[in-house]
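Sharing a chain and its predicted structure for anyone who wants a worked example. Both blocks are below, sequence first, tokens second.
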Amino acid sequence: MSPDYMPSGSVRSAAELNEQIRALWLRAGGTLSAQERAEYELLVVEWAEAIRGQVIEAA
């Protein structure tokens, strides 16, 4: 994943994304394949963006 890549706005909540991240790790048994790693990285970036959005809204 390119460090310059930033998704444009998350439509999913941080809680939903966290649930998907946890489910991915459970399905993978703690070891991610290359494809799962790419999915994980995208989910984490989207989760961080959702968290940032919540912080901005709270301010």
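Comments welcome. Confidence is low (pLDDT under 50) at residues 1-7.
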